[in-house]
Write a structure and sequence with these properties.
single chain, six-stranded mixed β-sheet, Nuclear Transport Factor 2, Chain: A, 127 residues, 3 helices
Length: 127
């Protein structure tokens, strides 16, 4: 991981999203996002707010994402005060697969509130 700061604690929140994904736990996943977070996914999907993110992930984990494993490799971490901007390769892998099913370039914006990092915005696009 190359970064412009030594404070990489925001990455813990990102890694918690991959752990929640791997457990297929939409509640745990969504609780890592702020109440008014936004998500833009490749293909044009736009989600607004923690509850919409929760519903989207719950539907995915009950369907095409069932049993998949979350992945994220950070390329850049910049912390500016209580804001972190992380660029990574983000995706998921199907159970038993040797290679990831999807890997995309992602930008995460996180904000530290009351000592806790929350995702404010996530955007990914095809590599």
């Amino acid at each position: 991981m190359s970064g412009t700061t030594t404070d990489t604690s925001a990455v813990d929140t990102i890694m918690a999203t991959t752990a929640a994904w791997t457990r297929n736990d939409a509640d745990e996943f969504a609780d890592l996002y702020s109440s008014d977070a936004t998500v833009v996914l490749a293909g044009g999907t736009f989600l607004r707010g923690r509850e919409e993110i929760r519903r989207f992930m719950a539907a995915g984990f009950a369907g095409r994402l069932a049993g998949t494993f979350g992945m994220d490799e950070q390329d850049s971490v910049r912390v500016i005060g209580d804001t972190a901007i992380v660029v990574s390769r983000s995706g998921f892998k199907a159970p038993g697969a040797d290679a990831p099913a999807v890997v995309r370039r992602a930008t995460w914006t996180l904000v530290r509130r009351d000592g806790r990092w929350l995702v404010e915005s996530y955007h990914n696009c095809d590599l």
